[in-house]
């Protein structure tokens, strides 16, 4: 499945389990594909492990999920989401412990933030 990867990319995908890896590359160079194949490698080479993958964009998260959706039970062992959605989930679940209201709204657009500012 990794025949289309370069040698450095294959080295990242097949690095020993427990090895920290860092992928530095420009846009369009295949970072998402390499990390997706790394996740597949981890799932295929561990019996019970699960993987949490954090991305910066919804596009990357959706792309990774789509590429990993091969009909196997591996899909149940992965959680791929943006950093922001994971943070929101943590705040929704545990924010009350630091006094945050149950219903939080994260303003994503500048227009939303400006509206709150003008109405306060």
UniProtKB/TrEMBL annotation:
GO cellular component: cytosol; DNA helicase complex
Domain UvrD-like helicase ATP-binding: 4-120
Gene Ontology annotations of biological process type: recombinational repair
Record key words, sorted: ATP-binding, Helicase, Hydrolase, Nucleotide-binding
UniProt-recorded Gene Ontology molecular function terms: 3'-5' DNA helicase activity; ATP binding; DNA binding; hydrolase activity
Binding residues for ATP: 25-32
Signal peptide: none
Source domain of life: Bacteria
Record protein name field: DNA 3'-5' helicase II
Organism: Salmonella enteritidis
């Amino acid at each position: 499945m990794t025949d289309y990867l370069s040698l450095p990319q294959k080295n990242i995908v097949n690095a020993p389990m427990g090895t920290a890896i860092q992928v530095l590359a420009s846009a369009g160079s295949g970072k998402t594909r390499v990390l997706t194949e790394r996740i597949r490698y981890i799932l295929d080479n561990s019996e019970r492990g699960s993987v949490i993958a954090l991305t910066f964009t919804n596009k990357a998260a959706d792309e990774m999920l789509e590429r990993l959706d091969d009909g196997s039970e591996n899909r149940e062992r992965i959680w791929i989401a943006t950093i922001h959605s994971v943070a929101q989930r943590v705040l929704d679940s545990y924010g009350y412990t630091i006094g945050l209201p149950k219903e939080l709204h994260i303003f994503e657009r500048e227009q939303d933030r400006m509206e709150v500012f003008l109405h306060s």
